[in-house]
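Risk register update: the risk of archive-format incompatibility is retired. Evidence:
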Amino acid sequence: MKKAILALESGKYFVGRSFGADGEREGEAVFNTSMSGYQEILTDPSYCGQIVCMTYPHIGNYGINLQDMESEKPWVSGFVIREESPIVSNWRSSETLKNFLVRNGIVAMDGIDTRALTKHIRQAGALKAIISTIETDPKKLVEKAKKSRGLVGRDLVKEVTCKEKYPFFKKPAVSSYRVAVIDCGCKLNIIYELVALGCEVTIYPSGTSANEIIDSKPDGIFLSNGPGDPAAVTSVIETVRQIIAYNEKNNAKIPLFGICLGYQMLCLALGGKTFKLKFGHRGANHPVKDLVTGKIEITSQNHGFGVLPESLKDKDVSFTHINLYDKTSEGFAHNSLPIFAVQYHPEASPGPHESKYLFQRFIDLMKNNRVNKNA
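Archived output:
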C-alpha cells in the first residue's frame, strides 16, 4: 500500500498507509471517541476543514450504506484510523469504506498509533495539520501545516450551505407546522426528526435575509449545526439578531431552536461571546446535566468552540444544561422569548435517544404560538 503522512504544526508527524484517495489536504487535526458511526461522522458537514482521527482502533467493518448518510457526501479534509477492516459484514452495506473514500476524493490513512496522536492533541490542543500521499518529506509537511489557515476566523458555513431555498423532499404524513431551517451545514437526521413530528420543512441558504424568512410566515425557525468559527459567520448572526428584534418589536412569538453551531450563533446574536476549546468535544458518550430536572443525558457531540456564560449575564437568558466533563455550557433558554438551544446533538445518530424531548419542546412552542395567535 502507498505511504501516507500526517504532519502537525507542533512538529510531530505520523507515517502510515494510504487507504483513501491520493492527494494532499490541510485541516485541523481532531479526534472522535465514538466506537461506531464513522459514516455519519464522515458525512456530517460540521467536520468540514478537519482531519478526523478515530480513537476506536478497528474501523470499516460494517461498510457504507445509503441510509446512514448525514448529507450527500463526506466533508472531512482527511481521515485517520488505526486499522481499516478489509472485510465488510452488514446486510445494509453497499460498498466498502475504502471505496467510499476513494470515490469521494478523501485522503485517508491507517497503520499509525492513534492513541499517541490522541494523547498529543489532548496535551497540545487541536492542531493545524497536513495529510499527504504526495510529499514524502515530513519536515516539509510540518512547515506546510504551520502555514495553513486553521479554523479561527474562517466562515466555513459558506462552503457547506445549500445554494438556494428548497422544500425538503420528504413530507410528513400529517403536516402540522411549517419550519424554516437556516442551513449552516444541517445534518439530515435533524430534518428527519422534525418531519417525523409533523413539520413541513423548507431549507434556506445561510445568506438568506431575515425579511425573507419572516415573510414566509413559518411556525418556527431552526438554526442548524455547521463547521468553523461561529464568530466568523457574521451574516447568519445578523439574520438571527434581526429575527429576534422582530419578535421583540412586534410582540411576535416565532420560536427559535438551535443545535451546536446554531446554539453558538443564537448566543452571539443575543450579545454573547464564544471561545475556542482546547481540543473540542467529539464523541457519542458525553455526559450532560439538565440543570432544570437534574437528569443526566449521555449525548452525541461535535464542536470545537464554546459559549462564555458570563457574556450573557444581563441578556435575560437562563443556562439549562452543563457538560459534566469540563463544566462548559451545553444549553440555554430565553426567559421572555420562545428561544432555546443546545450545544450537543439530540438527534443522536450515532448515540442514545434520551435527548429527543428537545424536538418535542420545539413543537410545543410552535403549538402555543399558534394557539395564542388564534385567541
